[in-house]
Amino acid sequence: MKIQAIMDRVIIRLDKVQEKSDGGVILTTDTENERNTGIVESIGSDVKSVKVGDHVIFHAFDELPTLNNDPDLVVLRERGLLGVFRDE
Fold first, then answer.
1. DSSP 14
2. Helix/strand/coil for 67
3. DSSP letters for 15-41
4. pTM above 0.90?
């Protein structure tokens, strides 16, 4: 089932948790609460600053609860976004 954001809401698919460092060291810290970046999957009609497919960073405390049981999917208001990653 696909979910469509409405109004000023943004639905984000969280980035995967990094289990190893670039050097191959296994990371054992609890990073589950630190995931605050992801890819925009859906935007509401009032959202102006991002588009589907943008890689964004957001304030984790602005997340809204979701009804589906997908822990990698978060919903937040557009004002909770902190920035968009750009390749420049």
1. E
2. coil
3. PPPP-B-TTSPBP-S--GGG--EEEEE
4. no
Q: Which residues lie below 8 Å from residue 75, measured CB to CB, with a gap of 6+? A: 5, 9, 10, 11, 12, 63, 64, 65, 66
Tokens linked to 87: 């390749």
pLDDT in tens, 16-60: 876 666 677 766 655 455 679 999 999 999 999 999 999 999 988
pLDDT for res 20? 64
CB neighbour list of residue 17: distance below 8 Å, 6 or more residues apart: 31, 32, 35
Lookup: tokens for 54:
């943008």
pLDDT of 11 over the 80 cut: yes
